Each structure stands twice: as C-alpha cells, then as structure tokens.
C-alpha cells in the first residue's frame, strides 16, 4: 500500500470513527440556559419590585376588593411595573453581553472532548439570544424596548444585529453578533438569518451581510457567510446556502436558492 493510500485510509477511518456521546454537552447547555434565564428574570423582577417599594408606587388597599376607581389605579400601577420590568430586562441583556468576547470567524471542530473557546463564547451568546427572543411574562415588551431609542442605541452595537432597519415583528436572527443589516431591509414572517452553519463535525462562524433595500421573504433561511447586495429579493421559503453572494438587484428563490432574474433598480420603481 502506498503512502497516499495509507493516508487516505487513515482519513476515512478517522471520519467514520464513532463520536462520543454528546448528551453531556447538550445537557450542560440546558443547565446554563436554565440558570441564566432564571437569573435575568429574577433579577429584573427583584429590582422592579424594590423600585416600586422604595418609591411607594403601589396604590393603597387590596386590588381584589377595590371599587372601579381603585381597580383602575392598580391596573395603571401594574402597567408601570411591566414597563419598568422590561426596561431593566433589556438593560440586563446589554450588561451581560459586554464581558463576553465575540466569537472569531472560522471553522471549529465540535468532536473534541473540550470545545474551542470560540464555541464556548458562542454558547453563552446563544443563551442570551434565547433570553431576548423568548422572554418570560411579563417580558412581552422586550422586543419593543430593544428596538426603540435609547436602548436600541445600545442593543445594536453591543448585542446585535448591527442594523439600520426597524421591524414590527422581531426577525429570527440566530447570531446577532455576526449579522449586519442595512437600511430598509424587510425580513418576512418566520424567516431566519444566521451567522453560522453546522457541518457534521464542525461549526463555522462567518458574518452574514444584508445590504440596503433588501426583501427577505417569509420562512426563508439565510445561512452564515451569505452576502446579499443592495436592492435584491429572496423569495419566500428560499434557502440561501452558506457563502452565497447575491448580486445587486437580483431575485433568488428555491431550495437551494438560485438566481431567477434581474430586478430593476430601486430608483426606477419610485
């Protein structure tokens, strides 16, 4: 057997060798997710309750035996409580994000017993991202405060995604720290934008860039490393594969997505 054949055989044997049980790592992630989200929720609740007690913002009397006027005072106070809770919740996300390094772009082996630090940082950021998009009651205003000034001025640069667009429904951005969105970017319902993609034995972190005046159709999937140029459109349900570059003013659709036709410049349709 030649040296080349031996190397090829060793490579095949290595690639087909059984991997260790991954349940331990996944369970560790769930435990981290559980305690982090419980801490964020509990801390926001504690700080809000402490502020209300210190400022004496709760009405007097019981809300369960109050007349209509008193019940309205309790309802108004509860509304202020929810607003303050959401503000503190978003501020906590920003503060917790600050000390976590942004994972470097690259390909990282996931079959190792001890994962690369970049994968570890990504797991920590994933926990915070879940806490942002799946905020517990009464955190149903987290999206609003995260996208409105002044907290939006912190969330974009610190937490991500770096965006010059606004939305009425929070888009699914799986890796906000590795996603850049330009002006007038429309992301349809249930579309997903990622800054990574998974291989069998590795995870690849790569920045995704969507330039100005781009429309991403509902239920589309944009993988890591995709660059969509200005004025383009991604059809509903399309899957844009990793590393794809969509040219300016192009319409792409399908699974996997491919170029369908050119679009007229945005100025020409005004």
General description of the model:
With 270 residues, the chain is α/β, with parallel strands linked by helices. It has 2 domains: 23-159, no CATH class; 162-270, UDP N-Acetylglucosamine Acyltransferase, domain 1 (3 Solenoid). It is built from 6 helices and 17 strands. The chain has helices at residues 3-16, 23-55, 68-97, 117-133, 142-146, 152-159; strands at residues 106-109, 162-164, 172-173, 179-183, 186-187, 192-193, 196-198, 202-205, 208-210, 215-216, 221-222, 227-228, 233-234, 239-240, 245-246, 250-253, 258-262. The strands form 4 sheets. It has a 5-stranded parallel β-sheet. Strands 5-10-13-16-17 form a 5-stranded mixed β-sheet, with no helix packed on it. Strands 3-6-11-14 form a 4-stranded parallel β-sheet, with no helix packed on it. The longest helix is centred in the first third of the chain and has 33 residues, at 23-55. The chain is globular, with a radius of gyration of 23 Å.
Query: How would a crystallographer describe the biggest sheet?
Result: 5 strands, parallel
Range of helix content:
25-40%
**Total helical segments:** 6
Number of strands: 17
> Runs with pLDDT <50, length 5+?
1-18
SSE order, one letter for each helix or strand:
HHHEHHHEEEEEEEEEEEEEEEE
Shape: globular
Radius of gyration over all CA atoms, rounded: 23 Å
Instruction: Order the strands across the largest sheet as they lie in space.
Output: 2-4-9-12-15
Compute the separation of the termini in Å: 69 Å
């Amino acid at each position: 057997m030649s040296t080349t054949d031996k190397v090829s055989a060793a490579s095949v044997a290595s690639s087909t060798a059984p991997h260790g049980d991954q349940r331990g790592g996944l369970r560790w992630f769930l435990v981290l997710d559980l305690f982090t989200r419980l801490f964020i929720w509990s801390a926001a609740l504690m700080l809000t309750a402490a502020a209300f007690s210190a400022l004496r913002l709760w009405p007097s009397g019981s809300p369960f035996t109050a007349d209509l006027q008193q019940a309205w005072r309790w309802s108004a106070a509860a509304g202020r409580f929810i607003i303050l809770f959401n503000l503190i919740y978003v501020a906590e996300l920003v503060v917790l994000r600050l000390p976590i390094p942004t994972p470097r772009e690259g390909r990282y082996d996931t079959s190792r017993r001890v994962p690369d630090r970049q994968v570890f940082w990504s797991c920590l950021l994933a926990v915070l991202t879940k806490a942002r998009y799946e905020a517990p009651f009464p955190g149903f205003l987290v999206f609003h405060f995260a996208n409105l000034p002044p907290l939006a001025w912190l969330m974009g640069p610190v937490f991500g995604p770096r965006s010059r667009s606004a939305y009425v429904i929070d888009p699914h951005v799986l890796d906000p720290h590795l996603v850049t969105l330009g002006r007038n970017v429309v992301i349809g319902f249930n579309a997903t934008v990622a800054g990574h993609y998974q291989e069998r034995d590795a995870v690849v972190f790569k920045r995704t860039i969507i330039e100005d005046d781009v429309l991403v159709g509902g239920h589309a999937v944009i993988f890591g490393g995709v660059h969509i140029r200005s004025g383009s459109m991604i059809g509903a349900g399309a899957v844009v594969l990793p590393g794809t570059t969509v040219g300016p003013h192009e319409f792409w659709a399908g699974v996997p997505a491919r170029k369908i036709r050119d679009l007229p410049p945005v100025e020409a349709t005004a």
